[in-house]
Amino acid sequence: MKKILWVILLVLISGCSAQPAVVPPSEGSAGKSDNEIYIVSHGWHTGFVLPADDVQRRLPELEKRFGNTAYIEFGWGDEGFYQAEAVTSGLTLKAIFWPSVSVMHAVAVPVAVNEYFSGHEMAKLCLTDGELRSLVDFIEGSFYKDERGEIRRLGDGIYGDSQFYKGVGEYHLMNTCNKWTAKGLRSAGVDIFPAFKLTAGSIMKSIAKIECNTRSVP
């Protein structure tokens, strides 16, 4: 009976939204790889850190909210689990097994990334203009936009100067925060298969040997 329930659950989840989707590589992806971005691991969760200007030009709301910050970190995840003051086993199980609304988390990083995230495992990647453009396309597409094309602000974020926003797609076992990071990397031209990247460790291991990558392990 338990096996039957597991099969039913997996079938239901497999039919759920897999948004946000990987963005096809932009034209002009060849060229100098002189755009630095970072992937930061928080142990159970990963996120992107990008120069603020590159994203604020697309999403003016972020400039209004964070001003002249040097970088912004972005993460995607389950609405209830991500915003919870205390993480419980019930929240964890619900986030994994029950498709739920997603949110985007944006954090202002006003200083050097390795200084702000001191003690975290992180990697620096160097992207071409086209690769960066595709990654920004993916991140922009992860924010829900209303009929006026504006993103929707929710509550305060969980650390530093941060903010939650309504996201695109449903969070569930087969569409996790780390799979979101993998889809972003795939959008940026990284040879990675998002379907198999469900943990922070699997993400960091996959990018450990990429050229222009400098890895920091606490």
UniProtKB/TrEMBL annotation:
**InterPro entries documented for this protein:** CHP02117 (IPR011727)
Domain of life, per lineage = Bacteria
Which keywords does UniProt give here? Signal
A Pfam entry, by short name: DUF2459
Signal sequence bounds: 1-20
NCBIfam families (UniProt xref): chp_urease_rgn (TIGR02117)
Q: What is this protein called?
A: TIGR02117 family protein
